[in-house]
Write a structure and sequence with these properties.
Blueprint lengths: L2 H16 L18 E3 L11 E2 L2 E6 L5 E3 L1 E2 L7 H7 L11 E7 L5 H11 L12 E5 L12 H17 L4 E7 L4 H12 L4 E6 L1 E4 L4 H4 L9 E5 L8 E2 L7 E10 L6 E5 L6 E7 L11 E4 L2 E4 L6 E5 L8 H8 L8 E6 L1 H15 L18 E2 L29 E2 L6
Parallel strand pairs: 6-8, 6-9, 7-8, 9-11, 11-13, 13-17
Antiparallel strand pairs: 1-3, 2-10, 3-4, 3-19, 5-19, 10-12, 13-14, 15-16, 18-19, 20-21
């Protein structure tokens, strides 16, 4: 037997004997296993800067860690589920391009995307057939940024959601050098300057401060639908979702049901929402409890407990049963297979892809279109993401509310 393999087997055996002895939370600290999730761990350039909004369905490992729950076959909500839930099955994106903006490089992005689409019966989307392209924040194919395992998970999620909602769309992945507003903003500008791009998804954010009004210029691209995740920490506002130039996308919990639609949605408790401290109120928003910009505008599934299926294999331990074992214990970075994923990182590319399916972005002004077409949205009327005195800013109800905005797609009529 190979000495390295023998050592790995011995090490695994030792871990399996020792870890059950590790401290495990008491019954009083028990958590509903269906609600366990862990963040992607996206590297941030420095404290307070931008980070991705994504969470993986997780489990309580024998060492007491909350570790990613990865499996060898498709899991979670898959393309047919999402197309059914949002009434977009059979629609054609006409080769329009959805741009995904993230930080750092995922060296396995195209390979993992190919596996996802192949396994789920979607047409190939590759560099070779002209459907997929990966560039840096200057719009060039090289040099690419440094790699990062957490941001690679984010990239896989974003690419898979475009594929799920709009299989006939082209995909442009723009990778920023680092997760700062300057680098990610440059990446957004590069995406907007690329021919064929009709929508740009941004699944990241950070706290508002006095600099955001200047940085907003990177999201000011009339004729292109720019979407941004509202956040994963519950009630509270993040930027760029609060930018007046984007469609702010909140999050829901999506479940199958026996009603006419076949699905029900409630506000996800982790979705961000609220009233901006800096951004002026757009002319198309008319809610009364916030004098400035209100988040969110629309929403889509984001709860990891009802998460979407994603395929990602970029990690720091390789591809093997032993690596999978270490991942299951939360001892390595990255994934090695299928996982159910949530966070408003999922809802932003979903909405960007619905905009692309609609093919109407050349004639819209930022996020105003859904406000004039509310009848083409599923109104989400229950659930909350925090404490705000019971107002609509954190509590879903009929009509507009913060966590879910105007609602979720019912076809493309609202976009």
């Amino acid at each position: 037997m190979n000495p390295r393999r023998r050592a790995a087997i011995i090490f695994a055996a030792l871990i399996s004997m020792v870890l059950p002895l590790a401290a495990i939370p008491s019954a009083g600290a028990a958590v509903d296993a269906s609600k366990l999730s862990v963040g992607f761990g996206c590297a941030s350039a420095r404290a307070g800067q931008l980070h991705c909004f994504g969470r993986i369905r997780a489990h309580r490992a024998s060492n007491g860690k909350v570790a990613p729950l990865t499996v060898t076959s498709p899991t979670g909500l898959l393309p047919a589920d999402l197309q059914s839930a949002y009434n977009v099955a059979g629609l054609d994106g006409g080769g329009r391009t959805v741009a995904i903006v993230d930080a750092y490089d995922d060296p396995k992005a195209e390979a993992d995307l190919t596996h996802y689409r192949s396994q789920l019966g979607l047409p190939a989307c590759t560099t070779a057939n002209g459907c997929f392209k990966k560039v840096n924040q200057s719009g060039q194919t090289s040099p690419l940024p440094a790699t990062d395992y957490g941001w690679a998970e984010e990239i896989s999620l974003d690419l898979d959601m475009v594929s799920a909602i709009c299989p006939s769309c082209h995909i442009l992945l723009v990778e920023a050098n680092e997760p700062t507003d300057a680098a990610l903003g440059a990446a957004v500008d590069a995406a907007a300057a690329t021919s064929g791009v009709v929508a740009i998804s941004n699944s990241y954010g950070g706290a508002e401060d006095a600099t955001i009004l200047t940085a907003d210029a990177h999201f000011n691209h009339p004729g292109i639908a720019v979407t941004a995740s509202s956040g994963d920490s519950g009630y509270g506002v993040s930027w760029p979702a609060s930018s007046q130039y984007v469609t702010a996308v909140g999050g829901t919990t999506l479940n199958r049901a026996s009603n006419a639609r076949g699905w029900t949605e409630t506000a996800w408790s982790g979705a961000g929402s609220g009233c901006s401290a800096y951004e002026p109120k757009p002319s198309w928003q008319h809610d009364t409890a916030c004098a400035r910009r209100t988040v969110a505008d629309v929403s889509a599934v984001a709860d990891p407990a009802t998460g979407v299926g994603v395929y990602d294999t970029y990690n720091n331990c390789g591809t093997s049963a032993f690596c999978d074992f270490l991942i299951s214990l939360g001892l390595v970075s990255g994934l090695d297979g299928w996982a159910a994923v949530g966070g408003t990182s999922a809802s932003s590319p979903i909405i960007a892809s619905v905009y692309a399916l609609a093919g109407n972005t050349g004639g819209i002004t930022y996020g105003s279109y859904p406000y004039a077409h509310t009848s083409a949205l599923f109104d989400v009327t229950s659930g909350s993401n925090g404490s705000c005195g019971g107002t609509y800013l954190c509590t879903a109800g009929p009509g507009y509310d913060g966590p879910t905005g105007l609602g979720t797609p019912n076809g493309t009529g609202g976009f």
